[in-house]
Amino acid sequence: MNIKQLKILKTLIETKSYTRTAELLNYTQSNVSQQINQLEAELKNELFIYSNKKLIESEFLLKILPLVNDYISTHDQIIKLSNEDMTNKLKIAAPESLVTTGLSEVIKMFLEKFPNTEFDLLNNTCSKNQALLINGEVDIAFVINTGIQNNTIKKHKISDDEIVIVAHHSAPDTLDELLRSKRYNHFVINEKDSTYRTMFEDFLSSNL
Predict the structure, then answer these.
(1) pTM (2 d.p.)
(2) From residue 96, how far is each of 147, 189, 190 by CA, in Å?
């Protein structure tokens, strides 16, 4: 097992395509297949399975993925140090709402104290950010959840946030009246995995 094989593996996870992986890494497709086969032989486990003509990560791969990410991250840090690059990198995942409201000020204050820090800021849904943290792909994840049921994550509650509903200026002023209204009870909502949408739909389910 070597860093070349693991980076091929990581790219294949992202692309779900041997052809696309070969193009991105400037390898031949046969080389990509050979490296994955060698890795599976060494680990004595399948890394991918085909389901409905789609490439899907095996249970074994999902289990070792955090270790793979740590391995790649450690390798990259060693290479940076060998090149006398003493910049520290902090990978942060946060939903867009936090990025645009208060997180920028926090980062600014952090940089004033630790100016040699480089940030990688990833913008995703809260559920995706939590998955990135569990898999070891980020160092810190900011989420807006009612509760995180995972004992492997260190959790710290920062504050309570309120959800604001924006409606037509002629719409009722209260949520109860808005829900009963046949004319104004139409909402623009976020994508399916959005925490805001999930919380809002949970509220509707328990109050209608």
Answers:
(1) 0.46
(2) 19, 14, 12
